[in-house]
Amino acid sequence: MTSGAAIGDLVRASNDLTARWARDACDGTTTVLSGAGAWPLLAFLAAAAREPGRSELQQAVGVDATGAERHARDLLALLAGGTAATAALGVWTLADLPVEQWWRDAVPADARGELTGDPAADQARLDEWVTRNTGGRLTGMPVEVRDDTGLILATALSIATRWREPFEDAPLVPDDGPWAGRDRPAAGLFVSTPEVDRLALAETTPAGPVTLLTVHGEDDVDVILCLGEPGRPAGEVVGHALAATDGRYPASQGAELVEKATPGVRVRTIAAFEPGTRLNVTAARFDVAASHDMLARAGVFGLATVSTPDPRGHLPGISPVPLAIAQAVQDVNATFSAEGFRAAAVTAMSAAVMGAPMAEARALDVRFDRPFGFLARHRPSGLVLLAGWVAEPQDWPDGTV
After folding, report:
1. Where is the Serpin domain (predicted)?
2. Model's pTM, two decimal places?
3. Which of 131-145 are b and which e, b meaning 16 or more Cβ less than 10 Å from the residue's Cβ?
């Protein structure tokens, strides 16, 4: 893929990463992940890395490493431009870390910040960034600021949409399967609709037939529920369902499914005032949270080489100081309720300074926490434009923290 990739190619590349991750990480236990949150960070790293890490990252993101930083910005702009989803990028470098001009140009100015070298204070600032950019659904930066941290990259995604056609809360009592025989009913949802084309079947995936149900949000985000045959590996069902939504497999829709064996679907005859077919949907509510150590699956993300200690470093496009990825973590949660869908994902990677120990330095901390004066000076001429004194501080606004 060339550096002039269209936005559709970038969406496909990000979706491919999500599918690979899902096939590897969805092991049948409850989890949730966001390849779209990880893809831009990996693209930035691919553009900045040297070989052999550059090729590994390039393969993971599915676009040419040359120009990948532009694609990262394009994908983030696409996410940020929606009505139901928001996206934020944050890149923080140690205040005295030499940074290449290319990197300054690659990272948007409003996304750049500095690490002071005080891990506790920096961690608090990064945690606040997460809270602000996820509407409080997540409150902590997934990676830890350490003494050797020279760089942190993060994305924050947030989704909030209401269903176009809300569900009703209803008890869920399965007749068979692993959820049958519970002591209490499960929390379920129900809706009946004439929009039968919201249901589809991808028959020919490598995971066997997969049922797909599209739940439309009022904004520009839908949620697609997917179901495979009993016993099929979760990762395969999710990965190939994603591929089906990308059009990789042919799909039958709506009334066509009356004559097809479709996982999770039972066809019956009912009395109705008008002829036709209706779609009755019963699903379990869910509130899912997960944390992923991406370095535990470094090969999926192209991080195997760039996360190894090397005194030469792996990211010369960022800094002449040797750097290696030390942490890569994603925290994510999602809630599917009768009213709508809400989710947040924060993906963060930190790079540690490699090679010789850093030189000791001193910090001068100054606090203007008693009455003080000020001057406004015209730099070219030295003309003092204003002079003043602050005798009392302003009050902190009510309701803020």
Report:
1. 15-393
2. 0.89
3. bebbeebbeebbbbb
Could you tell me which CATH number the domain at 162-284 has?
2.30.39
Helix (H) or strand (E) holding 345: strand 340-353
Q: Which amino acid is at 101?
A: Q
Main-chain dihedrals φ then ψ at residue 270, nearest 5 degrees: -130, 160
Per-residue pLDDT band for 398 (boundaries 50, 70, 90) equals low
Which tokens sit at 236?
């395969």
Residues counted in the chain = 401
CA-CA distance, 286 to 225, in Å (whole number)? 12
DSSP 82: S
Residue 401 clears pLDDT 50, i.e. is over it: no
Domain 7-159+292-353 has CATH 3.20.20.70: no
Q: Domain locations in the chain?
A: 7-159+292-353, 162-284
Strands 372-378 and 383-390: antiparallel
DSSP string for 272-322? -SS-S--EEEEEE-EEEEEEEEGGGGHHHHT-TTTTS--TT-S-TTT-SS-
C-alpha closest to that of 224 among 233, 211, 235: 211
pLDDT digit string, tens, across residues 73-129: 999 998 888 888 899 999 999 998 999 999 999 999 999 999 998 999 999 999 999
Residue bearing tokens 């599917």: 336
pLDDT band at 357 (very low <50, low <70, confident <90, very high): low
User: C-alpha dihedral over 76, 239, 347, 93, to 10 degrees?
Assistant: -70
Average pLDDT over residues 230-240: 91
Neighbours of 128 (CB within 10 A): 14
Residue 386 CA: distances (Å) to CA of 76, 202, 370, 380, 383: 42, 71, 20, 15, 9
Amino acid letter for position 360: E
Taking a C-beta distance cutoff of 8 angstroms, is the pair 86, 133 a contact?
yes
Q: Facing residues of 375 across strands?
A: 387
**Are residues 209 and 199 in contact, defined by beta-carbon separation less than 8 angstroms?**
no
Number of other residues whose CB lies within 10 A of the CB of residue 31: 18
Each residue of 186-223: b (16+ CB within 10 Å) or e? eebbebeeeebebbbbbeebebbbbbbbebebebebbb
Structure tokens at 170: 């209803």
